[in-house]
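User: I'm designing a mutation panel for LysR family transcriptional regulator and want to avoid disrupting the core. Could you give me a predicted structure to guide residue selection? Please restate the sequence first so the numbering is unambiguous.

Assistant: Good idea. Sequence first, for numbering, then the predicted structure tokens:
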Amino acid sequence: MQCPISLHLGYTSIRVSLEESVLKRLQPEPRLRDLRFAKNLDWNLLKLFNEIVEAHGITRAAALLNRKQPALSLALKRLEERLGVTLCRRGPTGFELTEEGRILADTCSVFAASVREIPARLSDIKAEVRGHLRVMLVSNLVAPALDQAIETFHQKYPAVELIVEVAAWTDVVNALIQHKVDVGISPSRVMRAELSYLPLFTEVHRPYCGRSHPMFGVEASGPSDLASESFVLTGADEGDELTEFRLQHGLGRHVAGMSNHLEEAKRLAMLGVGICFLPEGYAKPDVDSGRLWPLLAGDGVPRTGIYVVTDPNSPAQISRELFITEIREELKSAA
């Protein structure tokens, strides 16, 4: 039979152990505690403390900062209360840091030095970013936001070599999936789940004819007016929206010419070979000079969304991310 005293001591030991366990669970984990401290701390107090330390006292720091001495004293007191320690002593011998104060002063000194290096480090990034940026796009895009982004990107990161290729939109997507290019700019038939799409602009397509064509100077009342005319088709460069529009209205049943290169298809249209659908922005200079004529006005024409396409699963590349950032900034400015 156990002694009552032994049983009581055993019970007390178990109770104390349970209490310690509960208290330990109630205390925040060190990492969580540190995160809360950093989030709730007024960082300006650290800056003022660093100024006081560098000035060897509150009075001189107040004069250098053009601040009132009581305001700095109050800031120092707030910091000490937040940390739960005394950081310095002020008396007949002058300003003196405590051991805790010296530890914090060393930390603030490193922090202040890092802050002072920010401008230099940001300017040095121009020299640090190097390598290649491979961009593949569909031909003859007229996209001011893209042009401005390329110009700004080169000015900021001149050491990056820009490699630009032109291809049909299907080839652009395939090249991205195979990681042959870093950025693709093209229309998209289907939004693939593994790719990321940033809308760049909407490309408007209209039918145009050259000066020697019988319909030059005539404004058609609708697509049906053009159904009996001969067309120059753009083959693989033709987007789905344009193909559906042509088939819906019976356009292109009579083919006078074809080219997978948009500039050559435009040449045939300018020479009067046939009517050709062209991007409005691309045709504008020739319309303004009188070499091409738009046969359909208004909104009832095909429109194609053009996207900046990237593959998030491709190897990380800082030049690609910086280039996308420039495009986003240009789109934001144009909005």
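For picking mutation sites, this is relevant: Residues 4-12, 21-27 have pLDDT under 50 and may be disordered. Residues 4-26 form the longest helix (23 residues).
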